[in-house]
Design brief:
heterodimer, A: about 800 residues, mainly alpha, 24 helices, about 75% helix, about 0% strand, disordered N terminus, B: about 375 residues, Methylamine Dehydrogenase, Chain H, 5-stranded mixed sheet, 4-stranded antiparallel sheet, 3 helices, globular
Chain lengths: ~800, ~375
Amino acid sequence: MAAAPESPPPPGEEDGRRRKRHGMLKLYYGLQVNAESGNKGPAATTDPCDINGAHFKPEVYLQRLMQEKSLNELMDKERDMVRQIRSLDSDMQTLVYENYNKFISATDTIRKMKNDFKKMEDEMDRLATNMESITEFSARISGTLQDRRQQITKLSGVHMLLKKLQFLFELPARLKKCIEMQAYGQAVRYYTKARTVLDQYQHMPSFHGIREDCSVIVAELCVKLREQFKNKESDAHQLAECVDLLLQLKEPADELCDEFLLHARHKVDEDLEMLRLQLQMLEAGQVPSPGDPGDGDKPHPMDVLEFTDTGCNVFLSDMCLVIASYKDLFINRPGTGVQEQAHLEKVANQKLEVFVNSLMGQYFSYVEQRVQLEKESSDNTLLVRALDRFHRRLQAVEKLLPETESTSSATHIVAKMAHDRVIHYSEALRRHFADCLTDVRQSLAASRSLSKQEGSNLGDLLQTTATSILDQLKTVLSDLRAFIESDITFAMQPYFREPFCVQDVREGLVVGFLKHMFTTCSEFCEGSGDKSSAPPPLILLLSRLCLDYDMTTISYLISLTDEQFLVEDKSAVTPLSELCNLAKDTAQKLLDHYVKVQGLTISQMLRKSVETRDWLNTIEPRNVRAVMKRVVEDVTAIDSQVGLLYEEGLRKAHSSDSSKRTFPYSSSRQNQRSQWSSYAPSSNMDTSLMSNIQKLFSERIEIFSAVDFSKVSVLTGIIKISLKTFLECVRLRTFARFGLQQIQVDCHYLQMYLWRFVSDENLVHTLLDEIVGSAIHRCLDPVTMEPSVIEVICDRG
Amino acid sequence: MDDDAPVIYGLEFQARALTPQVAETDAIRFLVGTQSLKFENQIHQIDFDDENNILNKNVFLHQPGEVWHVSASPADKAVLTTVYNKTSEQKAEMCGAVWRIPSEFDASANDAQDDASASAQALELLCHLDDGNHSNMVSTVWEPAGDGKKLISLTENNILMWDLDVSSSQAKLSSSATLEGKGNPKFTAGRWNPHHNCTQMATANDTTIRGWDVRTMQQVYCIDNAHGQLVRELDFNPNKQYYLVSCGDDCNVKFWDVRNSTEPVLTLSEHSHWVWSVRYNHFHDQLVLTSSSDSRVILHNMVSISSEPFGHLIDEDDDSEEDEENKKEKPREPEKDGVIGTYEEHEDSVYAAEWSTADPWLFASLSYDGRLVINRVPKAVKYKILL
């Protein structure tokens, strides 16, 4: 009401008026005056001279005006104020008028409304009475209709009942007809409908009769269904229908399961039987002949791929069919009660599991047996393909029935087979190695019997042997590669792949073979002394072979294996260095043994020659004894033999005169020796002193010590052993003058020829001097021969 | 002075023959026979004064020839046998004889020392071990722990058993056995088994070891190919009656159980040349001494096959508290076989090494150049065995 329509205020003076009006309104409402004025600033609120302000004090204002303004101005002001007062008055009048008008119109409206409501009340009263009468009428109508309706309901009930009864009475006939028409489904549907009623009213004779009839018919139906069920000819769909119907007829489900499985079993057993026959045939020794498959009805032995193929195609597909239909029938049945269904499912699942497991077990055992027969087969790829197919096909069964652990047992079979193959291959490798050794022996024996220079082909022989072994290994590795080809399903399974690559191939096959090889080689050293049957060239050859393995072949083989079989985890495998060390040790052992054997052969000759001779009664030496010539010959032969396989090796610097054979060096020695012999008769003390002093300056000679892998070292070892034996034998004998001289001649001869073979010719000189020295000691009449004579004799010899 | 330092004695001549004076149980005494074809040979009686670490020697002349083997009577200190080489221009013959060390020597042992070499007394010949029928003698062995009345000599192919009379002045051949076989086999060594009432002995020829019953002079066992090459020496375990050790030219030392002789019980190959002698310690049979022509003497500890494989059993009461605590902390580990020491004092082949019969911790070795070295078992080993 306060917001009366307002003409747009004239700018300037209108502003003040309006504010005042507002101020008054605000005063009236007691609202926000302070807040409003607060906004206007302190001057507007507290100034007592503000005519529009709330604190306006007329006396103060007047006083100020009087004081500040001139008369004219006062006059103007007065005039102005009068004008303002006047306009305010008219404004007030307008407002009051407006308000009054509005009151009037409002009063009119209210009065009008009062009238209208009175009219409406009358109308409502009338409606109420009408409704009352309507209600009354309808009650009367329903009252009259009541009886009729009840009758109708009853009649329709009776009708229904009669219909049902008729159905019941007709049921046996219908069922019969259905069965005749082989509409078993229809029959079952009818029967299931009626069954509850019949069960309920069986105490009434008529119903009882019907029930009996029905039961007989249904029993007949059951029999028929079961017949069909058992019929081998009936296909899966028919079977499924039968089972469904039988289940609806409340036949016990587990019995049906059993029966179904039993039925399925016949079929699957046939497949298994066929596999078994195959196995029998193979075990009976029939050779698979894939070439003539069309040989009438007579089953022919199949190869392994065909076998697994057949197994997969026939057995596994039947199996899948059985599982699938079984599941459809018993497990994934729609409709039936939840609890019942759950129970059925549980029982059915159990039965299925038992069934599948037993059959799969049988199947696996056949496959395993079959595959085992292939353990030593030569056709690896065929086997791998067969295994792969076997493994791959099982995935289908696994998918159908994840509860069975068919894949894992399949992988187990595959892994076992792979393992067996690896063992087979390592055996083959070992055999091959043994064959190689035999070959080497034979060719060594042959070359020896054919010609004296046995060594000429030793290098070639080594080459052939090494290549043959390596090739065989490579072939085996590439064969085994087939197991982890990328298109083989089981190859990618980590639990197959890792043990196979690391444990079987790398450790079992490669490392195992290498170790076997070294052990076999080492065994050649075990034979005691000269009784060992291995010919020395063989030992030498094996030593070189092992050394080659140490230096190159092992690292090549291992890296090849690691690469081909993707062996990454090196923590659990035999490290390369261990194998290399083993190889080196074996090589060293073999070479030492070679030195020992050859040294002993020569020792034996020397010993016999010293022991069997009567040194007291020999004639003056005219010749070098034949045995010395034989020794030099043998050493030369050994030298050429070793030279074929081992490098020359380091020699100590030759004394400058060694090229001139022996003369200057040995003459100085001879001088010394003659000094010796001049000492010898005079004082024994001096000789022993001499030899002791000499020994002080020479290093201790290790006789049976390890040798280096070089020709010179090997020969040095052999010569050392021989000469030491010579020395010890001389010390056990007693010589007459000519005996001593013979020894002198022999030693000189040896000195002439042996220095060239050894790393340090001083060694030969020292040992030979010691021999002569010992002979002088052991001589009854120590008169040495003139060096010049010795030389003449030796040169002549 | 360091107790473990070796004591070295030099002979003027070359020598192969060494034996402890078996009947002497107080003084450490060894007999060494020299080999010289030109000079008069000697038997050196070496006395070792353990406390002062001094060697005393007595030299006796052995006139008939160079000594190849010497062995002392187990009953009479003064009696010994030698095998010597009797040489003439035309032939050299190996003979055996029983000798007595001159008796007056014992009284003036220490005084006579200085001029011993100058005016050495000759050994007193008791009798020759020769009945004229047998070839070169190889060695002689006395009946172990016997009364000095029985001895066996080995010739190249015979075993001869001699009975000596009371004064040892006569030797009577009581029984003999002949080694037969193709290739004219020759004995290289023989030892009398101290067990079984001294009724057995073992001999070596070529690579074979044979056992004999000395009552019947029949061969009782035979280990063929005991070594790859010649068997040089044998010894019986003094504490285990079926154990025997052999050594030979294949550088190996092999331990045998004669009840099952197809394989050696253990094989040692520490030497780098022929092993010439092997000896069990008389008391502690885990200590085995070998010498070889690689100029080394090696003392082995063969605890695992000794009569005390678990060490000496300890009496707990004897140990102080501290020791017991120590023992609880680290239980005694079974000892391992191994080399106790390698003795390299020799410059030439060592043909003989012998334990002293008086001091079980002491042994002598003799190299061809006439150097006799006396060594002791290291104290640590000794205490380990004793405690």
